[in-house]
Write a structure and sequence with these properties.
Number of strands: 14
Distance between the termini: 36 Å
CATH superfamily of the largest domain: Glycogen Phosphorylase B
CATH architecture of the largest domain: 3-Layer(aba) Sandwich
Radius of gyration: 21 Å
CATH topology of the largest domain: Rossmann fold
Oligomer: single chain
Length: 422
């Protein structure tokens, strides 16, 4: 006898970031949730007013206690937060803590759901999930995209202080309260195992690509005109321009290429973040007109930009923690058929090597970045071969439709049979 259809789920999702914010956490939640809605489930997202990364509330929004909207069938409840730019410790800490408090309150006010998901970054969002889960007796799934607080000490955002020791205690508490932990790669699972999380409580749902947004499309000449790229070879970094990205290497590389009279090459840095202003000022002082900054762009414009450039840079600072990371930039660039220059060691390098979709370099190595960029600029056949291999690979292994179904099965199993964690 065949099993009947799965019951419709009511899913509550707590996330610090959500569209129109365009970073990877916001995109992941949105793209998963809209697919669950299409499958007949009810999804409510509790988030803050959109302001990332500059700490300025987006046009059309106000930082009010509660405001509701519907996005692609997803019920969105936005709560008040202390708005702060994605830089510094104290103001950003207040931003995180305020969201924990208001999201917890909102989670207690909405009707009870079958399963609750809270996603990191940031860790206090996970704590809000643990609070709501305990008080509402709702099965709790914790999503880990960053290992906090280690990730903020790794990029030098904070020292080993009393506050960080408190965060480590919160980290252990949240892990223990989650009925299941979903993470985005094998490297993160290894980190969780080292922290004593039992393997049977860990699931992996990687980042992936939304083929509705990212796929083969014609070059948009308007992009080259807007940023004065002309007919030069363009290597683009698309994402948050923050401390973890280590994009100082781009300026040093641009200086090396200028010395070699490679005026036919340009780096396009697409996005905003804590280090963008400093990098832009430094590039201006050095006269590096081969480094172009776009500022924040709407996520809907990113596919057109990727279609227009010749290669994509994915880079993180040289830190052991980042060897666990699989940046979502890899999947989007590959889906668009763009060769990748990867300055990330560990699992990301293994993926790019297996997919044969890019050139791996050492992080923080301007000479290596210059050599890789020149190789791609001078060899169109190489660009085409790497781009086509990447598109094939992510289409098979990292399709968001398949990944959302995999995630949904985890939520259904937790909702159906999870017991409170120890």
């Amino acid at each position: 006898m065949k099993d009947g259809p799965r019951p419709t789920l009511r899913i509550l999702f707590l996330t610090h970031y959500f569209p129109p914010e365009g970073n990877a956490p916001a995109a992941r939640v949105h793209e998963m949730a809209k697919r669950w809605v299409r499958a007949g489930h009810e999804v409510t997202v509790i988030t803050g007013v959109p302001n990332h990364p500059a700490g300025r509330v987006y046009d059309g929004y106000r930082n009010r206690p509660f405001q509701r909207e519907v996005v692609d069938g997803i019920r969105v409840l936005r709560v008040w937060t202390f708005v702060a730019a994605n830089r510094g410790v104290w103001r950003r800490g207040l931003n995180f803590a305020s969201f924990m408090l208001t999201a917890s309150l909102a989670g207690l006010c909405v009707r009870r759901h079958d399963v609750l998901v809270a996603t990191s970054p940031q860790l206090l969002c996970g704590l809000a999930g643990a609070i709501v889960s305990a008080l509402r007796s709702t099965p709790f799934v914790l999503e880990i995209r960053d290992i906090w607080p280690e990730s903020i000490t790794t990029v030098g955002a904070a020292d080993k202080t009393l506050i960080l020791r408190l965060l480590e205690r919160i980290e252990r508490l949240v892990y223990s309260r989650a009925h299941r932990i979903v993470t985005v790669g094998e490297g993160y699972k290894e980190q969780l195992l080292r922290r004593g999380v039992p393997a049977e409580r860990i699931g992996i749902v990687t980042n992936g690509v939304d083929k509705e947004l990212f796929g083969s499309m014609p070059t948009e000449s308007s992009v080259r005109q807007r940023y004065h790229l002309d007919d030069r070879f363009v290597c683009a970094y698309v994402g948050t321009i923050g401390m973890a990205a280590g994009l100082e290497v781009v300026l040093r590389t641009a200086s090396l290429l200028r010395e070699k009279s490679r005026t036919d090459m340009v780096f396009l840095l697409v996005g905003d973040g804590a280090t963008r202003d400093g990098l832009e000022e430094s590039a201006r002082e050095q006269g590096l007109d081969s480094v172009v900054f776009t500022g924040r762009v709407d996520r809907g414009l990113v596919p057109g930009i990727l279609a227009t450039v010749d290669a994509c840079l994915v880079h993180l600072r040289r830190q052991a923690l980042f060897e666990s990371v699989l940046p979502s930039k890899i999947f989007e660039a590959a889906a668009m058929g763009k060769p990748i220059i990867l300055g990330v060691k560990g699992h990301a390098a293994d993926l790019v090597t297996m997919a044969q979709c890019g050139i791996c370099i050492e992080p923080d190595d301007p000479d290596g970045l210059a050599r890789a960029a020149v190789n791609l600029a001078d060899d169109s056949a190489l660009r085409r071969r790497l781009g086509e291999a990447g598109r094939r690979y992510v289409s098979v292994h990292f399709d968001r439709d398949r990944l959302s179904h995999q995630y949904l099965e985890i939520l259904q199993s937790v909702a159906a049979g999870a017991r409170p964690a120890s």
